[in-house]
Amino acid sequence: MSIARKPLIVAATSVAALSFVSAAQAGTNGGAAAPSAPLSGGSEYGLSAPTSIAHPVVTSLSAPSTSVPGRPPRVTLRIDEAHVDTVNATVAVSDLSTRKAAIVVSLGWVHTGHTLSVSWPRGATLKAGSYHVSVSAHDHHRSSLTRGAHSSGVTALTVAAPTPAPAPAPAPTPATPVVEAGVPSPAQTVASGAVFPVAGAHSFGGPDNRYGAPRSGHVHEGQDVLTAEGTPDVAPLAGTITSTSYQAGGAGYYAVEHTDIGFDLVFAHCQASSLAVGAGQAVAAGQALCLAGQTGDATAPHLHFEMWVGGWYAPGGHTIDPLPYLEAWEQAGK
User: Which of 18, 166, 205, 312 yields a CA-CA distance of 20 to 30 A from 157?
Assistant: First the structure.
């Protein structure tokens, strides 16, 4: 019996020795490599984790925040997805009051990485209201659109009727000039044959050219009639020239007329050497007096025109606003 067991003991010893040698060859700690456990729920050390599945993303969606009823506004969009050339896209315009789609446009398979403009169906319209414009898409693997805070694929659109322009205010009725007692009105001077004192193209300028405009130490006592250098200045009414002279720091070359209906008229800033009348000379309505210039205190050619009641610088004499008379004479001459 003892002789039969001895080979078995030797054999076991040999197996143990082989195991020790194998362990020594396998690693420094003497342990054998543990088999991986795929059923444990973890990934095997040294192997990368599975990558996440790619999804299309709306990287740009542009539409106006407001529009008017009728044809939908222009909408552009761009969809991106890594390593994917085309995706199937749809654009919907939803009415927020009804929670229903007002317009749905299938773009079909479109290229990624390109800006696209939506072609609305013929006859598509939007009424006034609040809407959402949204994009949906999927790729060839049926992976649908990824939506996030910065790439939701949704934008708001308000359709509102334009505010009607206010009706134009009615043209003001020209006020009847207030004329002091005993002074002829503009209409009466027109009936007496008055003509406009500048025989050519002209304008009344701006506020600084008006009667009563502030000047250094005084106010403007006439109305400026802007015109081209050399335009004839004429007598509006028949009368007699009472004075012609020159004032370097003010009127320049000027003439004064006493009219047959009582006004005294002043014509200032005449062109040098252009005075065609002298003191004591009778003149008719429309007769040339001088040429418009810019002599004296003037920076542009014009007629400075004054109207006096009670006499030019006479005791009790004073100026009045000439503009209502000038406008009446201008209108009568058209």
Answer: 166
Residue 114 token pair = 């390109």
Query: For 230-252, how does the pLDDT look when each residue is reduced to its tens digit (9 = 90+)?
Result: 999 999 999 999 999 999 999 99
> Do the beta carbons of residue 158 and residue 64 sit within 8 Å?
no
Quick one: which of 322, 306, 308 has its CA closest to 177? 322
Instruction: Please give the domain boundaries of the chain with CATH numbers for all domains.
Output: 57-159 (2.60.40.1220), 186-332 (2.70.70.10)
Q: Decide: helix, strand or coil at residue 252.
A: strand
> HEC states along 305-318?
EEEEECCCCCCCCE
- DSSP 8-state symbol, 293: B
Counting every residue written for the chain, the total comes to 334
Retrieve residue 32's tokens: 């054998």
Q: Which two tokens stand for residue 126?
A: 């939007």
pLDDT at residue 71 is higher than 60? yes
pTM, 2 dp: 0.50
In one letter, which amino acid is 142? R
% residues pLDDT > 90 (the chain): 73
Give the C-alpha separation, 67 to 159, whole Å: 5
Task: Tell me the H-state helices in the chain.
Answer: 2-26, 186-191, 323-332
